[in-house]
Amino acid sequence: MRLADKIALVTGGDSGIGKAIALEMAREGAGVMIDYVGGDGPAHALVEQIETFSGKAAAFAADVSNPDEVDALIAQTVKHFGRLDILVNNAGVEKKAPFLEMPFEVYSKIVDINLTGVWLCSQRAARQMVKQERGGRIINISSVHEDLTMPTNAPYCASKGGVRMLMRTIAVELAPHGITVNNVCPGAVDTPMDAALTRDPKKYDALLSEIPLHRMAKPEEIAELCIFLASEAGAYITASSYVIDGGMMQKSGNL
Ligand code: NAD
Asked: Residue range 15-29: average pLDDT?
């Protein structure tokens, strides 16, 4: 098992990509703290699912954009599991509207969760990792949109672009402590976030035509890359972004 004896915290871990990461990290031997917001049903069902294969998991409700709740989340992880080795900043939201019409409140909420949330969770988790003196891993679920433009999605693109520079900068600062920091950048993944796309045959066909491998990613494929980065095999990798997009970023428009 590639993560035996490791303790991982996955934000927004009760749905989509985060759920797959929590599940697959637990299968690889990690004790997993599942952070969630909203109803506790899915998070507790996931804990039970992990326990069916004798995995270790717990769930805790915390909004990643709220400093007090993030402090409580880290404290609860350490109280329950004894320490924290891997942080996966997965929680994220998007809401599209033309730039000229986007309300400030919507912009602000997206940046608060997608960028400030990564800053907060990383800082508080890194303080704990430094105290433990055994290194650590921080993995951000960013997006191809940390680099690729997407009209009507400026707050999301800005937040992910911010996570790119945040990751590179703190990776350098945290390197002396043996803490690596990297981004995983999916293209289109089949999760509730993209449900509106997959339900509409016209939009779905248009999306697939943008992807050279002609399919969306499965959440488990994103989880596998995270496990690689969190495992011993990823020990020398830091300050980098890993695109996992079926070739979407290279679309050449060869009509
Ligand atoms: P999802 O909607 O299934 O999951 C998002 C999770 O974040 C949910 O569990 C949600 O409750 C949680 N969340 C939202 N606000 C939160 C907050 N304030 N505090 C804590 N948790 C909060 O969507 P997903 O597709 O699994 O998205 C996961 C991550 O992957 C996001 O960061 C997203 O930007 C990124 N991503 C998704 C895709 C895709 O195509 N689905 C592509 C690239 C990147």
From this structure: 98
The model's pLDDT over 150-159, given as tens digits with 9 standing for 90+, comes to 999 999 999 9
Q: Please give the CATH superfamily to which domain 7-190+220-242 belongs.
A: NAD(P)-binding Rossmann-like Domain (3.40.50.720)
Which of 90, 157, 183, 194 is the best mutation target for the ligand 1 pocket, counting ligand atoms within 8 Å of the beta carbon and taking the most?
90
Atom of ligand 1 nearest to the CA of 145: 43
Beta bridge partner(s), residue 58: 33
Catalytic residue, chosen from 36, 107, 156, 242, is 156
Dihedral pair phi/psi, residue 96, rounded to 5°: -100, 145
Task: Reply yes or no on whether the pLDDT at 255 is more than 90.
Answer: no
**pTM score:** 0.98
